[in-house]
Amino acid sequence: MPELDLPVAKAAIIICENMIDDGLYKSIQRRTQTALDWGATYLIYEISTYGGLVKSADDISKYLILDVSKKAHTVAYVTTEAISAGAMISVSCQDIIMLENTTIGDCAPIIISPGAKLEGVEREKQESFIRAAFDRAAEANKYPQALLRAMVTMQIEVYRVKNLKTGKPEFIESIRLSEKDPNEYDLDNKELIVEKDKILTLTASDAFEYGIARGVVKDRAGALEFLAGRDGVAFTSETMVLETMWSEEMVRWLNSPAVMGILVMLAMLGVYVELNSPGVGLPGLVAVICIVIIIGSKYLTGMANWIEVALFIVGLGLLMVEIFILPGFGIAGFLGIVCILAGLFGMLIKNPPDRLPWPQTQLDWQLFTDGILGMSLGFVGFVILAWLLAKYLPKLEFLSGLTLMPALAKQGDEVEINLTAPVMGETVSVKVGDIGEVVSTLRPAGKGKFGQAIVDCVAVAEFLDKGARIEIIEIHGNRVVVRAMED
C-alpha cells in the first residue's frame, strides 16, 4: 500500500521494440491513449531498437512532445539499445532511464540501398532535419543540446567546460568556444568529449555522467523506484503493461518490401490463371485476398488514403467491365489500368487526400523506391511463374484441373480457344458464325454449347437465359463473344 503522505501515481509500461515504422507509430498512439484512459500519470516507454524510418520516428517524437507530455509524465526506459531512430524517440521523453550496460546514440542518416551514399548537400539536408528534431527535444526536455547534435553529425566536436558562475559543467561545440567569455568559462581546462569525425554513442554510465540519462537501474522495478524517490510519489501496486497486438505486428510485417512483392506476385498470378480458366475459382479468390491484404495493410499504416483506395477499386471495376462485358480492348480497359497504377503509386507515398502523391524528401524517395522494388520483384516473379505454368502445368495430371487444354487442331478459319470437351470426345473447336445454345445463363458471361463443345462466352450488352440460341460473332484470344439469334 502506498504511504498516505505521498501523492499516488499510476504507471503504464508501453513496449517499443524492433523496427521503427508507421505501424509502431499507430500502435504507440493506440496504447498511449489506452493508458491515459486508464488514468496513468507516468507513461514509461521501454525502448529496444536499432532504429528505422526517420519520418516515423519524427512523428512519434512530435506526438510525445507536443501532445502526450501535456497529459502525463513521459519516460524512456532503455532496456538494450536506443540507436538511431530509437535515440530520437528516447530524447523526446521528459526523462531517460537506462538499464545497466545499455547504449544510446548514433542517429546519422543512411540509405539502405546497394552502393548508395549520402554526401554533400543531400547529407546535409537529411542531417539538418534530424538535428532540428534533436534540438526540439533538447529544448523541451532539458538535455545537453551539443551532445544530441553530435549523435547526428560527424563534424561536430564537443567540449565539456566548467561554468565559473554556476560551478557546473556545460557541453559546448568547438565552433562556439570563441563566443564564450573566458571570465565566465574555464576555457583553459576544457575537456574533449566528442572528437571530430565521430558519431556519438554512449553507454548507460556515460549517458548518466553527461546528463542525458537521469538514472541507471538494474530492472523495471528499479526504474519505478527511482522515479518514486526523485518525484516524491508512491506508485500503485497495479502497473499496466501494454505490448503490440499480433494484428499490429502482422500489418508491419505485411508492409515489408519482400512480403509486398510476394503478395503482388500471387495477385497477378491468380488473375492470370483465372482468366485462362472457366468460371470463378480458387485462383481468383487468392487474387482477391492478396489485393485486399495489400490495400488494407497500406491503409492501416497511413500509407493509403481513401482517394487512393477508391481509385484502385474503380480501376479494378473498369478492368472487369472491359474483360467480361465489352468486346475487344478499349477506353474502359485503358482507364482501368491507369486508375490501378495511380492508386498503387499513391499508396507508396504517405500524403493527405488533398495533396499530390509525389516524393518531397530524400526519405520519401527512399520509401517510394523500396515500394517500387518490392512490386517490381513481384512482377518479375509473376512473369517467371506464369511462363512455367503455361509450359508445364498442363502436363501435370494431378494439377490439370487448374487449367484448360486448348483445342488440339483447327481447320479453315477456326480459332483455338479454351473449352470443355466431352469426356471421351474427339478433337473439337469453334469458329465465328457457329450456332449454339446457352447452357448457363449469360449475365452477360456464362457458358454456351456449340456442337460437342461447351465454351465460356460473353453476350453483347444483354442477359440471355438458358436454352436461348446464340451465334459466335467474335473471338478474342480466350474470349468468345456471342449474340442472341432471332427465332
Can you walk through the features of this model?
The structure is a single chain. The protein has 487 residues and is of the alpha/beta class. The chain has three domains: 8-140 and 202-245, 2-enoyl-CoA Hydratase, Chain A, domain 1 (Alpha-Beta Complex); 247-398, no CATH class; 404-484, Nucleic acid-binding proteins (OB fold (Dihydrolipoamide Acetyltransferase, E2P)). The chain contains 13 helices and 19 strands. Strands 2, 3, 4, 5, 6, 10, 11 and 13 form an eight-stranded mixed β-sheet that branches. Strands 15-16-17-19-18 form a five-stranded mixed barrel. α1 (22-38) packs antiparallel against α8 and α11 (306-324) runs antiparallel to α12. The radius of gyration is 32 Å and the shape is elongated. It starts with 7 loop residues before the first strand and ends with a strand.
Q: What is the topology?
A:
Layout: E1 8-9, E2 11-17, H1 22-38, E3 42-49, H2 54-66, E4 73-83, H3 85-91, E5 95-99, E6 103-105, H4 120-141, H5 145-150, E7 158-162, E8 169-173, E9 191-194, E10 201-203, H6 204-209, E11 215-217, H7 220-231, E12 234-235, E13 240-242, H8 246-254, H9 257-275, H10 282-300, H11 306-324, H12 331-347, H13 362-392, E14 419-420, E15 435-440, E16 445-450, E17 453-459, E18 469-476, E19 479-484
Helix pairs in contact: 1-2, 1-8, 2-3, 2-4, 9-10, 9-13, 11-12
